[in-house]
């Protein structure tokens, strides 16, 4: 007797593709709404229902009106609109398959990881250089006293140094795949080696040198998670999985992605970005730095790496879900799936193999 997955192939394919697309769209919409609410000053979706009390107890009891009401509805539509667009895209894209959609979301996760790598690479070098010339009192001669004072402020350095470098990193990630997050391991070794040489040979060490190692080390683990998932590199607590057949493994991966993986990503984002004082929102909005005054001003970016981790993993879990459904639909065999996935992931993320 055929299962529902094989008995209704068209409905199954469309439902799975819409579900995976909705996961990515909701994640993206939440991040955009965070920026609109806490950076641009928009009211936020909960404020639309503030008069109900239970949804936004800290918000004013009076309903929104005028332009604030319109902006609130725009923010709500940011969730509904893309999901409707994905449903229309799935309905019209008759030539697309589960595999093609899975590759699309995997490519998105790969781009997020590449952009994250180039961001921490460029910002790490630039901020370390600024910290070095500042601690050696060379900055006034290079840029003047006024700009030296401003570069000592975390908000100024974040807005006028870090953010432009992030934009450049996003552009670089569009056009190059020859370097990626795996190279952070080498950069960490080089940065640590520099500390050893300067400390034990020249008796020289500054706070920014250790900050650079910690910044790149944290980024390596958080940014590489999606790539490791593609490459089957995560540690699996394997008590029963190895004994499952092809369909059992596919069911495990599909259900695990949607009911364990994706909710974990959403918990990280919702708990960390729900309010201004939340664990991720607070450091980002205040451009939080460490207590060492002449260290690097990148502590707040470590919170940003957690956001990149959650977003890239959500996109990759959507891809993983569709590939597992393709196995259940007998469009591919489980034995070839991991090898094909790893090869596609290596090409997408860019590890020097393309």
Can you characterise this structure?
There is one protein chain. The chain has 2 domains: 1-96, no CATH class; 105-349, no CATH class. The chain starts with a helix and ends in a 5-residue tail after the last helix. The chain is mostly helical and 354 residues long. It contains 15 helices and no strands.
Indicate the multimeric state: single chain
What is the helix fraction of residues, given as a range? over 70%
Rg, Cα atoms, Å: 23 Å
How would you classify the helix and strand content by structural class? mainly alpha
Estimated share of beta-strand residues: under 5%
Kindly give the count of domains.
2
Count of DSSP helices?
Answer: 15
Order of helices and strands: HHHHHHHHHHHHHHH
Shape designation: globular
List how many beta strands DSSP finds: 0
Q: How far from one another are the termini?
A: 44 Å
- Biggest sheet, open or closed, and with what strands and sense? none
Q: In terms of per-residue confidence, which ranges show pLDDT below 50 for 5 or more consecutive residues?
A: 338-354
Mean pLDDT: 84
Q: Can you give keywords for this protein?
A:
single chain; 354 residues; mainly alpha; 72% helix; disordered C terminus
Topology:
Elements: H1 4-7, H2 9-38, H3 45-48, H4 66-92, H5 98-135, H6 139-143, H7 145-151, H8 154-175, H9 183-200, H10 207-223, H11 225-230, H12 246-273, H13 281-286, H14 299-328, H15 337-349
């Amino acid at each position: 007797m055929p299962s529902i997955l094989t008995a209704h192939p068209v409905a199954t394919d469309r439902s799975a593709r819409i579900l995976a697309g909705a996961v990515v769209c909701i994640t993206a919409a939440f991040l955009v709404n965070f920026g609109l609410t806490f950076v641009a000053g928009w009211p936020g979706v909960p404020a639309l229902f503030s008069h109900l009390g239970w949804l936004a107890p800290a918000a004013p009891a009076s309903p929104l009106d005028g332009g604030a009401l319109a902006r609130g509805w725009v923010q709500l539509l940011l969730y509904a609109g893309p999901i409707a667009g994905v449903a229309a895209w799935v309905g019209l894209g008759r030539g697309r398959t589960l595999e093609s959609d899975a590759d699309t979301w995997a490519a998105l996760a790969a781009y997020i990881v590449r952009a994250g790598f180039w961001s921490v690479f460029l910002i790490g070098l630039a901020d370390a250089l600024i910290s070095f010339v500042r601690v050696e009192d060379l900055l006034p001669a290079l840029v003047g006293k006024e700009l030296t004072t401003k570069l000592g402020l975390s908000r100024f350095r974040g807005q006028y140094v870090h953010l432009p470098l992030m934009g450049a990193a996003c552009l670089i990630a569009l056009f190059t795949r020859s370097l990626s997050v795996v190279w952070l391991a080498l950069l960490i070794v080089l940065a640590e080696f520099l500390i050893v040489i300067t400390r034990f040979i020249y008796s020289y060490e500054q706070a920014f040198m250790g900050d650079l190692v910690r910044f790149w080390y944290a980024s390596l683990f958080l940014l590489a998670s999606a790539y490791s998932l593609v490459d089957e590199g995560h540690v699996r607590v394997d008590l029963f999985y190895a004994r499952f057949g092809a369909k059992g493994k596919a069911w495990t991966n599909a259900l695990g992605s949607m009911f364990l993986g994706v909710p974990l990503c959403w918990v990280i984002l919702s708990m960390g970005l729900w309010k201004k004082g939340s664990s991720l929102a607070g450091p980002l909005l205040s451009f939080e730095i460490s207590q060492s005054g002449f260290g690097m001003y990148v502590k707040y970016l470590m919170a940003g790496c957690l956001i990149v981790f959650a977003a890239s993993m959500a996109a990759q879990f959507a891809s993983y879900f569709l590939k597992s459904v393709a196995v259940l639909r007998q469009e591919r065999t489980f034995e070839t799936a991991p090898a094909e996935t790893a090869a596609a992931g290596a090409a997408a993320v860019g590890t020097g193999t393309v």
